[in-house]
Poly(A) polymerase (Somion occarium), 624 residues
Amino acid sequence: MAATNGYLGVTPPISVNESTEREKEVTVSLMEELHRQGVFESEEEARTREIVLGRLAAIVKKFVRKVSLAHGLSEAAADAAGGKIFTFGSYRLGVHGPGSDIDTLCVVPKHVSREDFFDVFEQILKETDGVTEVSGVPEAYVPIIKIKIQGIPIDLLMARLALSSIPDDLSLQDDNLLRNLDERCIRSLNGSRVVDEILRLVPNVEVFRDSLRCIKLWAQRRAIYSNVNGFLGGVAWAMLVARICQLYPNAIAGAIVSRFFIIMYQWTWPQPVLLKQIEDGPLAVRVWNPKLYPADRSHRMPIITPAYPSMCATHNVTASTQMIMTEEFKKGSEIVDRVIVGTAEWSELFTKHDFFHKYRYYLQVIASTGSPDLQIKWSGTVESRIRQLVMKLEYVDSLILAHPFIKGFEQVSYCLNGDEVRAVAQGDISEAIAKRKKEDIEGKEGASTVYSTTFFIGLAIEPKQPGTVGPRKLDISYPTTEFTKLVKMWEKYDEATMGIVVRHIRSSTLPDYVFDEGERQPRSAQKRPKTGKGSGKSSNTSPDVPSKRRRASHAVTSDSVSTTAQLKITQNGVTPSNNSVPGLEFASSTSAVYSPAVKDPSHIKSPQLPFGENVAVATSAAVS
């Protein structure tokens, strides 16, 4: 894209120099490592995707034609009504991997309604050979139909334009296309318009894609790739990489990745990341503006979408998740610095996260129901509120941060009686239940299936001050009780069929399913010295006893699945009336945050750009 001011972006580049020979060498080794990591799809899968998209385009035209005829249009007018698909997300960006879904937008003319999309189109899809797992979610914030065609997962959105027909050469770049559209259509169009604009605003698309593949894999491995949980989603990571590409227009991937970590660590938040100046448009809609809107001023790491209407893609970031990402930027910079000088390999950058080894205390949030379809909606509702729990926990004294894990763990448990159902809903899945299969409960009176999704939040506690005597207590009853109330306010919540439990556990009692095979043993060995240290104290400090006591003390009285919050290790499932959690006590250690095996990020030197490069160039632009 030609830039009117001679460069892309809101500031001049930091450097227009070509990459050094060493940076070229490490770029070659980076691409080799990315291939080893399996981030590229095969040529066969790429061809299959193209065929699938061709089939989908034809199905969309068939759908529009059918609806047009039903509205009384002539055969000729129905044929001319058109209909077109646009891809967005990782596929459109060119950074998708094997098995990843294709985000697809179906653009239809004005006489095709959203009801037609979910009634007529969904039915056409179900009747089409090779199309499976058709599932429409019309009530979603962005209404969607999920399908698979020839095994390729596709997420389908719909946008109805104020046009009588959709030509094959339609472009979505014109802001005037947004006129007279409802908010859901504007949101649906926004994904495709943003991605197209990102690709127009980078100096070299191939360098951008190579760099983004690296950053995307790193963020996934480090468990900081999740918009809903307060980290960054795919579009936000893409915009960050695109900004670095603008600042180094002649650099190649190895150099871009190196500068990425340094600049993102040094970035002066809440200075926004902009790929171009925010523009006004033809609609009476809100555009991100911290001078006008207090909510926009509260955004901690604003990364602003480049397509009108500009929005903040990172409004979910909390104080805790910002601290975690900043720490990861610093660690990443240190590793890449060693890669460039030849003392480390790129594989070190993609080392799996240490979330389940990092903290001594965790919150466990369990959402459960008796139906697989209901569980998808209920667990999704609970997950969307986890960020609110994190933000409330951040106000608790002695808590440094609350670290949400980026995904839930799904379990299907076959229970013989109500006691087992209640235990599973509380997060206590015994070995007998875990091994039981569906056929083991068929035909047995009182038996039932429980679907549960468990989310985890790591709790980083302030180190104990010298001279402090005895165990400390942390009162987290208010945030957990408020969170439980919040999720129960969901309009479709039913106490008889949905369970929500919040309880704290020690790292030693984390369930086996959160660890990869063979991963748990080092962690257990690491914790052993502490059991001896606390052997003279109450049984609450023993890593083994709490889980046994919890299992013996659950006394929940709800009909099907527990709906009470498990807030005490030493009491039953009923929330204590005095709103305190005396059971959460901490051993007399001066370091309650990180386990000894985790490298303290404060020992890593602050990353700096090479001599002559100044990050202030990139952060000096004010919002116009």
Remarks:
- The longest strand covers residues 448-461.
- The longest helix spans residues 43-70.
- The radius of gyration is 26 Å.
- Residues 343 and 355 are 26 Å apart (CA to CA).
